[in-house]
Amino acid sequence: MKYIEKFQYITHDIPHLSHIEQAQQACEAGAKWIQYRCLSKTDEELLQDINAIAEICDDWGSTLIVTDHVHLNGKADIQGFHIEDMDADFIALRKLVGNDITLGGSANTIENLIRLASEGADYAGYGPYAVSETKANNYALIDIQAYNHTVKELQNKAIELPVLAVGGIKIYDVEALMQTGIYGIAVSGAVNFADDFIEAYQDFYSLVKESAVN
Which residues pair with 8 in a beta bridge? Predict the structure, then answer.
């Protein structure tokens, strides 16, 4: 069983902090999971970022996950990939990266989650919960009742895929989300745009851990 952190932090293209600065601050705040999400750079630029962030993660004992860009596997110290394409073939992806690499996927329906579990994904981001400041999408929002229903459905089917709520989540959403039995929470904007990045991260982290029911 691979290590999957309950509170996952995602970097983004934002004007006031580079991806490297975001990763540094998150690790200083205690982050054990950094998802590098950059879809706007060349491979050379991506690798410059990834190598720098990998060193930071290594210094702080954090797991480094890269959004998409599976073709960079083996070219940097990357522990895993998060694939946003909900139609991606995870059986083929697993063959490509091997068993040691962590593979996560995005989902918006129970059917998405069941398929990810059946194809060997290690975890799933399930959302969006709310409108996100950092990622535009047209998928239907998933409310608390739907998270409750999803958790029960997966339990009934004996599916043990770790599922994390994601998408526009604020600090005041955490307790209710975690009480659904969801595995964890992933955030970006609520930390990146906070007045105090480190304090915001630590507040989220503490609340996720305190509110977990499993």
Answer: 186
Domain presence at residue 2 = no
CATH of the domain at 193: 3.20.20.70
1 pLDDT more than 80: no
Whether 135 shows a pLDDT value over 70: the answer reads no
Instruction: Find, among 4, 7, 12, the residue nearest to 169 by Cα.
Output: 7
Range of the domain at 125: 7-211
**Does residue 142 sit within a domain?**
yes
State the pLDDT at residue 131. 84
**What is the total count of domains within the chain?**
1
Query: Whole-prediction pTM value?
Result: 0.96
Residue 12 lies in a domain: yes
Q: Report yes or no on 128 lying in a domain.
A: yes
Contact 82, 67 (CB under 8 A): yes
